[in-house]
């Protein structure tokens, strides 16, 4: 979404920030439960994950996911925008979950063989939350906010 390079960057920033925030809260709640230091840990843990995710989004996942999405749905003047949005969002979620689950596994147990052992369960657990979070909450809210910011 966005007409200029700057607008596309802002949209990516908003989507990435929102998804990482939501997924960090989700994973912290699953791993630690809610406790008195929850928000302090969230504030500390969020930023590195956000930087990693933004890098992955811009330089790797976005470059792979969007061409795949456009093969799934060939956008033209007759294509409903929702089909394009769902295709791109779905491909982005799959790519980001695959990469960020490895980030989470390494962060949890270190760079070891144990990270590879817990990786599949991390992928499943994260995909279960990431897809509905993206499709039902983050994408609509960010698209609405972005539209208001840039009068689209």
TrEMBL record:
The chain crosses the membrane at residues 9-26, 46-64, 84-106, 118-142. It holds the Pfam family DUF2798. It comes from the Bacteria. InterPro entries: DUF2798. Keywords: Membrane, Transmembrane, Transmembrane helix. This is DUF2798 domain-containing protein. It comes from Clostridium cavendishii DSM 21758.
């Amino acid at each position: 979404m966005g007409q200029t390079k700057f607008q596309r960057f802002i949209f990516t920033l908003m989507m990435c920030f929102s998804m990482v925030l939501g997924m960090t809260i989700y994973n912290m709640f699953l791993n630690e439960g809610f406790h008195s230091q929850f928000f302090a840990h969230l504030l500390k843990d969020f930023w590195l994950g956000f930087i990693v995710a933004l890098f992955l989004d811009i330089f790797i996942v976005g470059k792979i996911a969007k061409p795949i999405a456009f093969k799934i749905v060939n956008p033209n003047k007759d294509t409903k925008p929702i089909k394009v949005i769902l295709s791109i969002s779905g491909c982005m979620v799959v790519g980001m979950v695959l990469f960020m689950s490895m980030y989470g596994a390494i962060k949890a147990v270190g760079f070891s063989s144990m990270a590879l052992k817990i990786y599949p369960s991390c992928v499943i657990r994260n995909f279960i939350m990431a897809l509905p979070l993206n499709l039902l909450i983050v994408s609509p809210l960010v698209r609405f906010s972005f539209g208001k910011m840039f009068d689209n």
